[in-house]
Amino acid sequence: MTQDETLTRSAFLLAFDLRKERLTNRSELGYLLRAAALAELLLEGSLADESGKARAVAEPAGAGTGSLRAIVWEQISGSPPRSWRRWIGKDHAKAVRVVRDELAADRLIRVERHRVLFIPVERIVPRKAYLSRRLAERVGRAIRGGQPVGRMERDLRVLAALAGAARMKGVVGSGEARRHQKRIEQLSVPVEPIATALRKSVEAARGSAAGG
Q1: What span, in angstroms and rounded, lies between the C-alpha atoms of 111 and 171?
Q2: What is the reported pLDDT for 101?
Q3: What pLDDT, in 10s, does the model give residues 58-73?
Q4: End-to-end CA distance of the chain
Q5: Which residues contact 170 (CB under 8 A, 6 or more apart)?
Q6: Does this model's pTM top 0.85?
Q7: How far apart are alpha carbons 59 and 47 in whole angstroms?
Q8: 34 touches 54 (CB < 8 A)
Q9: Alpha helices (H) in 90-153, listed in sequence order
């Protein structure tokens, strides 16, 4: 990850299946993006954990009015403390569109729109596939071990923790996540309440989908 890349943008780029040139787990991507924005705010001291709830502490600097981070901050700062899981789930579909438009404007992705039997279909393609490939390789290594957690770049560590919590296909499957659960827990320490809430949100979404 580069210094000027946010966790939310990196999480979006990480979600590509490069073999099929499409996003994976798209229905759950919004949860991951919201969790990444919450993690950014928590790590910079704008949010604090209050008995399992997100509490606004200090307005973030340079959030940008249209960024997902700014949107999430505005929602939380105008509300009493609520659970992290609530904030991960709120407007999660919109979160995908916000980050998508930001990356498209920066020409990191291409959005193709067409119709199939009069039904609008959207396809998102990475313009610089090597960025997604490099991220997936680094996050995969972080989850599988090798480098001590304490010596890892903070944003990479947190991105790996969130990817592990979300069981992202192409990075770590459910079976592999279970094998590396202790490592994922170590990676998650700086954002533990968010990672836990993300895992529960994804599990609930998959359970609901499986149940029809």
Answers
A1: 23
A2: 95
A3: 999 875 678 999 999 9
A4: 38
A5: 15, 16, 17, 18, 24, 136
A6: yes
A7: 9
A8: no
A9: 92-105, 129-144
